[in-house]
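Entry 14. Structure prediction run on the chain below.
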Amino acid sequence: MATDISEAGLEKIISDYLVDVNGYELGKAAEFNKEYALDEGRVLRFLQATQPEKVKAAHILDSEYERNKFFVSLRKKLGEAGIIDILRNGFRYLAYKFDLYYSTPSEQNPMAKALYARNIFSVTRQVTYSKEFPRLALDLAIFINGLPIATFELKNRLTKQNVDDAVNQYMNDRDPKELIFNFKRCAVHFAVDDNEVKMCTRLCGKASWFLPFNKGNNDGAGNPPNPDGIKTDYLWKEILTKESLSNILENYSQVVEKIDRKTNKVIGETMIFPRYHQLTVVRKLLADTLRNEVGKRYLIQHSAGSGKSNSIAWLAYQLVKLEKSGKNFFDSIIVVTDRVNLDRQIRDTIRQFMQERSVVGWADDSSTLGSLLNAGKKIIITTIHKFPFILSSIGTENKDKQFAIIIDEAHSSQTGSLFAKMNMAVSGNVCDDEEDIEDKINKLIEGHRMVRNANYYAFTATPKNKTLEMFGDAIPQPDGQVRHVAFHTYSMRQAIQERFILDVLEHYTPVSSFYKLVKKSEDDPLFDNEKAQAKLRAYVEGDRTTIHHKAAIMVEHFHTNVISKGKIGGQARAMVVTSSIERAIDYYFEFCRLLEERGSQYKAIIAFSGEKELPNKYKEYGKMTEASLNGFPSAEIEDRFKKDPYRFLIVANKFQTGYDEPLLHTMYVDKILTDIKAVQTLSRLNRAHPKKRDTFVLDFANDPEDIKKSFQRYYKTTELASETDPNKLNDLITELEKHQVYTAEDVERLVGLFLGASDREMIDSILDTCAENYKTLNTDSQVKFKSSAKSFIRTYAFLAAILPFGSAEWEKLSIFLNLLIHKLPTPEGDDYTEGLLDAVDFNSYKNTIQEEQRIILDNEKAEVQAIPVGRSGGITSPNLQSLTTILEEFNTRFGNIPWTDSDRIRQQIAAIPKEVAKNEAYQNAIRNSDREVARIESDKALMSIILRSMTSGLELYKEYQDNPSFQRWLQEFVFERTYNQNR
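Output returned:
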């Protein structure tokens, strides 16, 4: 007999495993009551077996009338509260409360174990669920104590159907008005084939939103080959065991209410069921925590928009309950975020999952945080800026407690002095006034280190080298180096392929800006060429003409390409990312004017921190804040932006991280973005929405290659190649001592006075003397000393947290330099651009929207290098050029070339330096030869590129060959932009 490869065969494989291995009962389709959408017989069997007195007292079995009355009441309650609430809190009928499920017992509770064993898990095949259409049947349904928990539609690729056919069946053939498909009646609906699993918590016809429930394969979507069977058998072999399903229902599944902040009324509900990666990471963290003693560090690299807030909430909630040998593993869980606008989001999320609000505390200031710790609050939420409270308010008793510290978006802000203060607070390493200096130094060293009485769980989408080295798993290599990797990864690549987030680089359009400047007078003064070019660019970008042109493009694009095309069902919003508060205000006023002129029904909101006064532009407005310009409080920005007439959010360094708004579709970028900032900012667009099919970026400031480089580092798993060499600190000490700004005696004396709480005058006396020594240095030496001091402070603050040893000398010098650095004036250099802007006039401006492109990232892991310990710098000699030469270069780059196809030629010229920089012979010359040899190789590489340009037209080639002036300019332009950058 041949192997059964039919859909029914897959159905039998699943049900047989659930019954034979997982201990489920096999139900019959006839046992399903369509009137109440449950297995009536098993509901009654469970109640009679566990609560017979209540069943008798409530007369449930006295007659068919009483029985029906009970089930009508239960049906109503299931519709109102939902299956999760009924399982957790039971069901009140008449004067009695009936438990319809017994939760997972703790280790030391035999009575609870006996009750849990009474739960009836069952699976039924071919469930005929409809009264109106009696032949319609679900492939599978799972019940607990007769209550439906999950439904399944199965497909089989071997018979030419797949998981998407199952999804379509739910969307088109499963009427959400049928009782079993009503919202909240089941925890989840699964679409399954032999390759993939998808899930949905709210069926609503074609608008049903199914998300992948897959393991992932090679940092991408799907599932890996299974050497022991079907790719998707983890669903029934791992997820649907009694223990696993109970764990999900008790600790993850939840109906979340959406509250109108103004009226405090519920305006919507969302059913949450964990994604596979969320469930897996929390379970792995909990299991590894139990296997080890306290003091471990974990790094979780999960893509932006992948649901980290829920993962953090679930982890915090279950760490509270974690027990070992009958005792709580942790005394308190501290959730720390360095993103201020996420503070509320995480607090609200955790509150929704916690069943007892008394265990959660919110630390709004230092005294609150200290009292919460001392009071033994189980979960404390704070921001990194609020965390370094006064150590004396905590006391030394915390060294006997155990903490879990969950860090959201772990970046370098957790690797310095703030982190050291946090460690001291939970470790109890607070200096006592009676201790001598050596003891205090030793305690400070211990305070810098990762404390032994706390576990660290660091979540981030974009791990930097510091983050990897501090929190990542150390993997020794054969060559003696130590790599660091994340404990768990859910990559950007997988999230995009699973459509859990959108690919923000799929529709990316750069915009080129072209300008022409002219001299005001006959004089031809000299200016620093590099700084002058930057200053001229800032000058033209800030001109009202420029702002008008770009704002007009944005407004027109939004109405024509976003609104008129019905993006996100006509609900799409746009963000305008600006380089400064002043620029944001410029854009805001220009947007207001353009929208009014257009007669548009939409408005803009501006977002920035603090206040700004611009008397030369907007004198009548005085000191401006976002609230004064918007006409409503800052706290309302997020809610207002969701509603009409607001469609544009103009930001200045705000809402670029941690802002979660699925209606955000388009981003207009007028700010240079690099590395993490580029990823975090553009990722504001990636949040999924049932009606969101794409995103769009119009970028006025960045090169697509730079954006690709930024994203590539975090596309898949990010690994640290090697650890930081602590000997670099000794190199910095050598450089510092060479300048004789301070002596060893100065360091010893100051540290002694400082830790001994001596008078301020005694400390200032030492610092002022050293500052005077610093002022006697020449400018170049001042730069070298101050940069070395800053580098030492920064590097030591990081290394002190992870090194297995301490150094009293380094700790003392760190204290000394931290105090001295504020006394040192900034080295003064000559301003070789003074008077530049007074000598030029803005003649013309033009924008060219280039062809839309998809930035495709490479399918490879990223490797970052160890933290570079900054070498002392010096003053760079200015490259002085005449104003005529500077304007010639500027206008040649940005607009003053009489080409036939000027836009295309400008784009070609702008791309040449990067192409030359890739030339291997030129790279070798830069590394191994002098400047003259490198210039020769640069010119050769340039000529090769000019020759290749002939394939797309002869104009650039002819000008280069026939115009010596242009040839010299282009050679100089390319060399100056590639030589120093590649040394």
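The longest strand covers residues 508-519.
Filed with the rest of this week's runs.
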